[in-house]
Write a structure and sequence with these properties.
heterodimer, A: mainly alpha, Arp2/3 complex 21 kDa subunit ARPC3, 71% helix, globular, B: mainly alpha, 10 helices
C-alpha cells in the first residue's frame, strides 16, 4: 500500500539501470551471507512467502488498487536478507503480469524491500521496548511503509528533468530517443525551473493516499501477527515472552 | 489473480502461431517491445506498437478475460499525470508506454508456458534465483486453492462488509494469516519431496 508499481518507459534510463545494478549488488551480497545449503533449504519457504506477497498484491481491499504488500510480516518470518530476495522474485513475477514494469524491477525491488528489511528491524526494536505484539507490529509496519513511500518519491523526483523533456518533446521532430547519460538531461534544468513538472502536487496526492494505506496495512499486519501467534508463536521469534 | 489460471491455461492449451513460436524468439520479441517503449519518442510510433500488440493479442486467441490485466497498470500511471499539469501529450505518451509494456508481458505469459520462460532465463540468471522464481510461481497455484477455500470460509463468517469495518479487517487478516501458515506447512512438505527427488540447487526442465 505504500508504493506505486512504477511502469516501463517513464523513468530515465540511467535511473532504472542504476536500480538494477543496486538491486543485483544487494542481492548478491545478501545471498553470500547465507550458507548455500541453508539458502537452498529455505528456498521453498522463500517461494511460498513470495507467493503470499503476490497474492496480497492482487487482492484489492479498497478500490483504486489499495492492496496489502505483506512485506513486513514476510520480513519478520524470513529475516532481512531472505525478504530482499523474496521481494526481488515478487517484482519479477508481478512484472510478468503487467503489474509494474520490467525495466524498473530493480528500483521497485529496492523501494519495496525497504518495507521488509526495515520492518524486521523496527519490529524487534519496538518489541524489545514495548513488549506489546500488536503495537510493535503496527508501528514497525507504519514507519517501514512511510520510509518506503519516501524512497519511492525520491526515485520519482530523480527523474524530474526527464519528465520535463517528455512534456516538451512534442515540439521536437523525431521518432527515437536514446540517452544513457544523465548529463545530457542537465541542459533542460532551466526549463524545469520554469516548472511544467509539478512534483508537489504528485506528493500532495500520494502522501494522504499513502497515509490511509499505512494505517490499514499496519492494522492488518498486526491482526495477522496475532493470528500467527495464537497458532504458531515459534514463527515470530519472540523468545516465548507473553504480552 | 484468478486470471492467472486463465493465463496458464491459455499458455499451455493455446494453438495459435504465437503459441508455436519458440520461447527464445518470444523473449527476444519482448526485448524489442521494451526497447521500443524506452526509445520511441513519437505518439504515432508508440500507438502503432500498441496496435501491433493488440492485433497479436487477438490473433493469438488469448482468453478475453485476461485483457483487463493489461489495463491494470494504468491505475499507477494516472499518478504521473499530476506531475505534468495534465498536459495531454504527456498523458497519452505515458499511457501508451504503460499499455505497450503490460500488453507485451501479458501476451508473452499467455502464449508461453512458465517452465519454458524460466528454462530460457535459467541460461543467464543464477540457478538459485530461477529456482526461487519457479517455486514462487508453483506456490501461487498451491495458495490459490487455499485462498478459494478460505474465501468460502470468510463468506460464512460474514465476509467483507463496509457496515462492519473492524470485523471485516479481522476476517481479512485471519484469511491472510491462515494463508501464510498453510503456505509455510506446504513449503516444508515441498522441500521434503524435492530432496526425495534429488533436488540439488537446480530444477531441470524438459529438454535441458
Amino acid at each position: 500500500m505504500s508504493h506505486i508499481h512504477l511502469p516501463d518507459g517513464v523513468l530515465p534510463i540511467w535511473l532504472w539501470v542504476a536500480g538494477f545494478i543496486g538491486a543485483i549488488l544487494v542481492g548478491v551480497i545478501l545471498s553470500r551471507l547465507h550458507k548455500k545449503e541453508d539458502l537452498s533449504r529455505r528456498l521453498p519457504l522463500l517461494g511460498m512467502m513470495a507467493a503470499v506477497m503476490v497474492l496480497g498484491a492482487s487482492v484489492e481491499i479498497v478500490p483504486i488498487a489499495y492492496h496489502v504488500n505483506l512485506t513486513v510480516i514476510s520480513g519478520i518470518l524470513l529475516g532481512p536478507s531472505l525478504v530482499f530476495l523474496a521481494t526481488f522474485v515478487v517484482n519479477v513475477i508481478l512484472a510478468l503480469f503487467g503489474h509494474g514494469g520490467i525495466t524498473v524491477i530493480g528500483l521497485n525491488t529496492l523501494t519495496l524491500s525497504i518495507e521488509g528489511v526495515l520492518g524486521y528491524f523496527l519490529f524487534h526494536l519496538f518489541w524489545r521496548g514495548l513488549r506489546k505484539l500488536g503495537i510493535a507490529i503496527f508501528l514497525a509496519t507504519f514507519f517501514a511503509l512511510f520510509a518506503s513511500t519516501l524512497s519511492m518519491i525520491g526515485v520519482v523526483s530523480l527523474g524530474t528533468s526527464h519528465y520535463e523533456e517528455l512534456i516538451h518533446q512534442d515540439k521536437d521532430r523525431g521518432v527515437f530517443e536514446f540517452k544513457l547519460m544523465k548529463e545530457k538531461e542537465d541542459h533542460l534544468k532551466e526549463e524545469t525551473a520554469k516548472g511544467e513538472v509539478n512534483l508537489k502536487r504528485f506528493i500532495s496526492i500520494l502522501l494522504p493516499l499513502g497515509f490511509f494505506g499505512w494505517l490499514l496495512e499496519g492494522v492488518i499486519t498486526s491482526l495477522i501477527a496475532r493470528y500467527i501467534r495464537r497458532l504458531r508463536p515459534d514463527l515470530l521469534g519472540l523468545g516465548g515472552e507473553p504480552s | 489473480m484468478i486470471q492467472l489460471s486463465y493465463l496458464d491455461y491459455s499458455a499451455v492449451e493455446g494453438k495459435s502461431f504465437l503459441h508455436r513460436f519458440s520461447p527464445k524468439a518470444k523473449l527476444a520479441g519482448m526485448g524489442l517491445v521494451l526497447l521500443g517503449i524506452i526509445t520511441l519518442r513519437s505518439l504515432p510510433a508508440l500507438f502503432s506498437l500498441y496496435v501491433i500488440l493488440l492485433i497479436l493479442f487477438f490473433v493469438s486467441r488469448v482468453p478475453i478475460k485476461i485483457f483487463p490485466l493489461t489495463l491494470y497498470p494504468l491505475i499507477f500511471a494516472i499518478l504521473f499525470i499530476f506531475i505534468s499539469r495534465f498536459q495531454i501529450h504527456f498523458v497519452l505518451f505515458i499511457f501508451l508506454k504503460v499499455l505497450c509494456g503490460s500488453t507485451g508481458v501479458v501476451l508473452l505469459l499467455a502464449t508461453t508456458p512458465y517452465p519454458a520462460i524460466f528454462s530460457v532465463l535459467g541460461r543467464f540468471l543464477p540457478s538459485l534465483f530461477v529456482v526461487a522464481l519457479f517455486l514462487t510461481y508453483r506456490s501461487i497455484f498451491i495458495l490459490l486453492n487455499v485462498f478459494e477455500e478460505t474465501q468460502h470460509a470468510l463468506y460464512f463468517r460474514g465476509g467483507i462488509q463496509w457496515r462492519h469495518p473492524w470485523r471485516s479487517l479481522i476476517n481479512i487478516s485471519n484469511a491472510f494469516g491462515h494463508l501464510i501458515l498453510k503456505g509455510i506447512d506446504a513449503s516444508e512438505k515441498m522441500y521434503e519431496s524435492m530432496v526425495l527427488r534429488g533436488f540439488k540447487d537446480k530444477i531441470h526442465y524438459k529438454g535441458d
